[in-house]
Amino acid sequence: MKELAKALLKVHQEMPNVGNNAVNGHFRSDYATLDHIIDLVKPVFLKHGIIVKEGCREGAVSIQLLHAESAEVDDLCIIDLVCKDPSNPQQQKSAETYARRRLWQLKAGICPAGEDDDANSASQGASKTQPAQDPATGLQGRIDLLKPHETAIIAFAASKGTIITGVHELPSSWLKDPHKLIDKANEYSVANTITKEVAK
């Protein structure tokens, strides 16, 4: 999937900062709406010939990227819809919107700026506090270390046959030594970047 990988590299180099544009009054948290994310992200995908294919089946939604010119596709991502009362249309729609938003964020390689949950209509406020992770050793801590080097890591992973849209999709084996991965990715990026000297 070399052509798709090349296009995705360009997409990530141009991906805008998708800030939060709405406030959840119930949880007193900010979040980015689905429409806001799509409005900012979809044009970047289309500019580089990538079609975002969404699917919906009973109890789940899915998303997949298709490179129009080469017909290459990435892995299908699926999220099951979870709501307290599936027979309630409002809760079902809320769960679907939340799941679709997460899928678009995953494929675009963007993460919420803070606590992100406007799905209280689906969960009715039921939530469990997740234990804090050691930033040095926890999975999220390692992913945070990789974030500033994401573009280089995506390109390096593609050169090894691993197609990802963001460092959060890396296999767990790649996350054992983030500093080593950063070094390798940056070395690859430098070795494969063509620089042009501007004539004075």
Care to give the gist of this entry?
It is built from seven helices and five strands; from the N terminus they run H-E-E-H-E-E-E-H-H-H-H-H. With 200 residues, the protein is of the alpha+beta class.
Task: Walk me through what this model shows.
By secondary structure, this protein is an alpha+beta fold. It has two domains: 2-123, no CATH class; 139-191, no CATH class. Helix content is 42%, strand content 13%. It is built from seven helices and five strands. It has helices spanning 2-14, 34-47, 89-108, 120-123, 139-146, 150-159, 178-191, and strands spanning 22-24, 29-31, 50-57, 60-67, 77-80. A three-stranded antiparallel sheet has the order 3-4-5. Helix 1 (2-14) runs antiparallel to helix 6 and helix 6 crosses helix 7. The longest helix has 20 residues, at 89-108. The protein starts with a helix and ends in a 9-residue tail after the last helix. Mean pLDDT is 77; it is low at 24-28, 113-122, 124-137 and 194-200.
